Amino acid sequence: MKNTLHFQFIEPDQSLVDFVYGFSSLQHFSNQYGAVVIPNGKVDLIFSKTNDNQLRVALLGLETKPKNVNHEFSNFYSVSFNPLAVEYLFNHSIADIINTGKILPSNFWDFHIDDFNNFETFCHKIAKHINQLLPSKIDERKRNLFQLISASNGEISINELSEKLFWSQRQINRYFSQQFGLSLKAYCKILRFQASLPHIKNGELYPQLNFTDQSHFIKEIKQLSGVSPKELHKNKNDRFLQFLFYDSK
Q1: CA distance 75 to 122
Q2: What is the pLDDT of residues 100-136, one digit of tens each?
Q3: What is the CATH architecture assignment of 140-247?
Q4: How many other CB atoms sit within 10 Å of the CB of residue 55?
Q5: Does domain 6-133 have CATH number 2.60.120?
Q6: Residue 136 phi, psi dihedral angles, 5° rounding
Q7: How far apart are CA 169 and CA 163, in angstroms?
Q8: DSSP per residue, 68-88
Q9: pTM (global) more than 0.90
């Protein structure tokens, strides 16, 4: 009998919310042919079990376009990080892996194949490790930058951000380009797209956010998902994995 795709999502403790968006588990993924990942504005650390029972660890950069997913693995646990985490937890830029990723050592952060036996135990272990990595001090401009962008669903101008943060527009854009490999404008488009997904899932196929008009809305949804809002809503064969998150709420 064919195993059914199984998804779990656990939110982080309050101490981690600036850095971690959440922990997720996807089981029996190898049966999900034609699966598509769409941009979500997060940086994912993936711990996957390959079909020959080996542990593979990968760090994925930000996505700016949809991509098909391979099926070299059947199950995975992942941590979705907010971009602020990149500088303070990974200590290096991810600009070079935009729309792609890189394989990390299989024992990264001291994880092993046995840590795949229980999702809640995995979450507890990795949350504890992340807590140990948290810096004693961070640049408050950067913390506030991401809080403002997130609270507005990306619908805040760089001019307003600059005025609120006392940080020049040029410096903000340089930070995004050097750290993440995309512009602030491109990142904000992703957040607005993400904020539109619950509406599209519910069949609201017209702009609920600050798009110029219906044509602009359709164009942007198609750019980031690869399909029209109508096709995205249909989600034929449950291929858009992002909708699993809304089903779990």
Answers
A1: 14
A2: 999 999 999 999 999 988 999 999 999 999 999 999 9
A3: Orthogonal Bundle (1.10)
A4: 18
A5: yes
A6: -75, -25
A7: 9
A8: E---SEEEEEEEEE-THHIII
A9: yes
